[in-house]
Description:
It is a single chain. This protein has helices at residues 6-13, 48-55, 59-65, 125-128, 263-269, and strands at 34-40, 77-80, 96-102, 108-113, 144-147, 150-152, 155-157, 160-163, 169-171, 176-184, 188-195, 198-208, 215-216, 221-225, 235-241, 247-248. The protein has 277 residues and is of the alpha+beta class. Strand 15 (235-241) and strand 16 (247-248) form a beta hairpin. Helix 2 packs across helix 3 (59-65). It is elongated and about 60 Å long.
Amino acid sequence: MLVVPFLTCLILLASSCTPSADNHDQTEPRPQPTALAFRIIPKKRENWVQLGRRLRVDSEQLKRFNHSTSSRPRGPIYLPITDKKILGNKSHRSKEIVVLERDRFLRPAFKRPWRAPEAIYTVSLKRWFEVDRSMLLHAPVKGRISSLYGPRWGTSHKGFDIAARRGARIEAAASGRVLFTGIKRGFGRVVILEHEGMRTLYAHCKVISVQQDDWVEQGDKIATVGNTGRSTAPHLHFELLDDRSQAVNPIPFFLPHCLEDSYSGFFSYLFEEDDCP
Length: 277
């Protein structure tokens, strides 16, 4: 039986990659890891729960590793090989093995096929999900995460929502330039910041405190929490966008010392703790 220890590795991440204030600025970005993985073709109309059951792994963690926001797996799905013993399992001998490399946003990408007798190597998910220290973000508002990144109500929720009191201070998640302030359909009042190789979006604001082309430092006030646009209660909708303006899961990029006893606790309580970044 194949059981990939996704959750354990994610929990271990909390104690391994919190940066030290003394050497943060001197840390060079680490090379992106590579990993061996099984390349899986989902069956027609198979959803993530069914696929996880077939592969005997946690479907939510499998979806997270593949960076999916859809309710059904699309295209080839990668199941990482975290233990060499898995390769000797008879039930997996017919599966195609590939070499993956990870981009800076933790997404797996096909690099090339793996062929025996090429050296066998593995990478722990602790290492795979380890965020470069230069990309760690500051919590934009104190509150409770009310909706996660991923499938929601039959669509893709491309960020996460933080419920907070109306008028609460919204702060820049990272230093950068103000790219946009104004109204966007569904989002109401919006601020978009441009950082090195990525952007952050802050929606449903009540009052915007910055102007286009302003430079802001991490932690600076940029707006206040509101209920503008398509919104049922005061909250901040936050998105992290890559250099092609594609949304990525922002949760792993926040300083992990706010982690509770589990990854799900991290989702629920990240922005309520007094010692959060």
